[in-house]
Specification:
With 625 residues, the protein is of the alpha+beta class. Helices cover 39% and strands 22% of the residues. The protein has four domains: 235 residues; 98 residues, Sandwich (Immunoglobulin-like), CATH 2.60.40; 138 residues, Coagulation Factor XIII, Chain A, domain 1; 81 residues, no CATH class. The chain is built from 17 helices and 24 strands. The longest helix has 32 residues.
Length: 625
């Protein structure tokens, strides 16, 4: 991406000082295009939403009666019947419908367990067919309230509010609207919406606005709620379907027609001025891009303009001029500050609303010349200075080895020849044949002159010690500069000394070593010397002495087997116990710990079961005696 492209990307962000202001609007022309395209659809749902959206825009409704007449419907699909009948009503094609279409809504109204959504679709389908009031006002509302107690979701409240529009109970809507609005979900403390997304939000905002308008009451929405709902709708303005466009229109028009309407203040077009173009256009409109009701052109004022670099105020209370033929476009003239390039903070007000936006005054920069110095690292000799004028290149073939340094010194000036500082000043050192490169930051001194010192020996590691020709390029850029500079000064030949390689030759991965590395051989530590055999035998006998003493005592006392129980459990218990002791001995001689555990588990289980049975037998024999 070019430096100019990066500049525009940075400037596209405008700071907003108040939460109660919008930066974007709903594009009605774009939504109308989506709706007109949706009319061509063979899907009845898409056709319905397209016609509904065009009706909200007061646009011409196309003749779709033949398409509606040819549509094959299913009486058990209530949503399909709802879309079909209401599309026919909008297009004036009710007489083209098959009378069997009445069967669907009537069947759902007779259902004892019908949901609120089914009641809403049934009633409005029959209303579209001209069947008049379906519900008794008091009895119907009582039934709806009972259903709301089972499921009081925001979408159900929206359906009830819509049915109240039909039945004439808007006063009930007015008594519950504020509580429902408080149940809206908040996102990042900036946007409000209802559970269910855009469909539920559009249904509730539309029904509440129409109900209060019928009652001739002021809207229950607070100013903060208006702007937060509007912020949510602006975030959803990129829709591609007819359904999304119609729902967005319904909600946006409900807020846009409210009083006071949410206001949008945004930069229109470019966000910078130059010496040739010294004006910036702003759009001041309501949520749907219409002129703000009651706003006088002289009330759109630039209250202040401050340069961000030093907080100097450059303008105060400067009115904007309304552009002829465009009532929502206002022009701010910044000719007084076009010679002072930089970023500026402009505080705009439209009536009681204000917004802060960042704009840039783009200036031109120039570099008259650069001084290229070549000298010793230790400074024992004065450096040789070569001057290069912009946009020329070095004519001398300069060479530097690892004991020298290269210095570059230059100053940046504006079109009035005044030294200035820029946000980005770099020097790039790149191989003319390979891919090796490194970039250095140029730092200004007290006189605003930029200087970079390249110690050839130190930069060798960044260039893989590859000696050869390298190009030097200066890059200068700023978010408030209209002509960023990329100036290739010329080529220098670097010699990195004994560790260097010629450009183009293969360089080892380490960048230093030549040839293969020595083989790594690992030597284990020699085992400790074993003691003499006699010492081992004496130690083994000392360890076995207690066991030998036990055997001698058993031989002297003699073993009494008179009361040894004669049973299978006794035999199994002693054999398994002996096996466990033998396994313990084998562990020391041969087996590993894990192998021993694997054998010990089944042996221990047998020992436990047989031992338990043996002990129970001994207790029984004792009680018998």
């Amino acid at each position: 991406m070019s430096i100019r492209g990066l500049l525009f990307l940075v400037l596209s962000v405008a700071a907003i000082s108040h939460a109660s202001i919008l930066q974007n609007t709903i594009d009605l022309k774009k939504l109308q295009g989506i709706l007109q395209e949706g009319v061509k659809s063979k899907d009845i749902s898409t056709l319905y939403y397209s016609l509904k959206g065009l009706q909200l825009l007061n646009a011409k409704i196309p003749d779709v009666c033949q398409e509606i007449k040819a549509f094959k419907f299913d009486t058990s699909n209530l949503e399909q019947i709802f879309h079909l009948t209401n599309a026919a009503a909008i297009a004036g094609c009710v007489n083209f419908l098959n009378p069997q279409v009445l069967a669907g809504p009537s069947k759902f109204l007779d259902k004892k367990d019908a949901t609120i959504a089914e009641l809403y679709q049934s009633v409005y389908a029959l209303k579209a067919l001209g069947k008049g009031a379906i519900f008794n006002k008091d009895e119907g509302l009582k039934n709806l309230i009972q259903l709301l107690k089972k499921d009081d979701s925001p979408s159900n409240y929206g359906y009830v509010f819509a049915l109240c529009e039909h039945m004439g109970c808007e006063s009930w809507t007015a008594s519950h609207a504020e509580g429902v609005l408080l149940a809206a979900d908040e996102t990042d403390a900036r946007a409000l919406h209802f559970e269910g997304g855009l469909p539920t939000t559009a249904l509730l905002l539309g029904t509440i606005a129409r109900s209060y308008k019928t009652l001739k009451k002021p809207s229950p929405l607070s100013e903060e709620q208006r702007y937060k709902f509007a912020q949510y709708l602006v975030s959803r303005r990129v829709v591609s379907s007819a359904r999304g466009a119609a729902l967005l229109l319904e909600a946006a028009l409900a807020l846009g027609d409210d009083d006071p309407t949410p206001i949008s203040i945004a930069i229109k077009g470019r966000k910078y001025i130059t010496s040739d173009a010294d004006t910036i256009e702003f759009t001041v409109s309501d949520l749907v891009g219409r002129p703000v009701r009651g706003l006088k052109p002289e009330e759109v004022v630039a209250q202040s303009g401050t340069r961000l670099a030093d907080d100097v105020v450059v303008l105060s209370k400067q009115p904007l001029v309304q552009k002829p033929g465009e009532p929502t476009t206002f022009v701010l003239n910044l000719s007084k500050i076009k010679a002072q390039y930089g970023l500026y903070k402009i505080a705009l007000s439209a009536g009681t609303k204000s917004s802060i936006v960042n704009v840039a005054v783009l200036g031109e920069i120039q570099v008259s010349s650069v001084e290229v110095g070549l000298g010793d690292v230790d400074g024992t000799t004065s450096p040789k200075i070569t001057t290069v004028n912009y946009p020329n290149k070095l004519t001398d073939h300069l060479q530097a080895d690892h004991l020298q340094k290269v210095s570059l010194k230059f100053s940046v000036r504006d079109k009035y020849n005044t030294p200035v500082l820029v946000q980005q000043a770099f020097v790039r050192v790149a191989s003319t044949k390979g891919d090796d490169e490194t970039i250095f930051v140029a730092e200004p001194d007290n006189s605003k002159a930029y200087k970079v010192e390249l110690n050839v020996g130190n930069i060798a590691k960044h260039l893989n010690f590859a000696s050869g020709a390298y190009s030097l390029t200066i890059y200068l850029g700023d978010s408030a500069v209209s002509n960023p500079i990329a100036w290739t000064i010329g080529n220098l030949h670097f010699n990195f000394g004994k560790d260097a390689y010629a450009v183009g030759e293969p360089v080892p991965a380490s960048g230093v070593s030549r040839g293969p590395l020595p083989e790594i051989a690992h030597e284990f530590r020699s085992p400790e010397a074993r003691p003499p055999r006699a010492v081992s035998d004496v130690f083994a006998c000392a360890c076995a002495a207690p066991l030998l003493l036990l055997l001698l005592l058993w031989a002297k006392l003699r073993v009494n087997l008179g009361h040894f129980p004669i049973s299978l459990s006794a035999l199994v218990f002693h054999l398994s116990l002996g096996g466990s002791l033998a396994l313990y001995g084998v562990l020391w001689l041969k087996l590993s710990m894990f192998e021993t555990v694997r054998y010990l588990l089944p042996l221990g289980l047998v020992t436990f079961l047989s031992g338990h049975r043996l002990l129970r037998r001994l207790v029984q024999d004792k009680q018998t005696r």
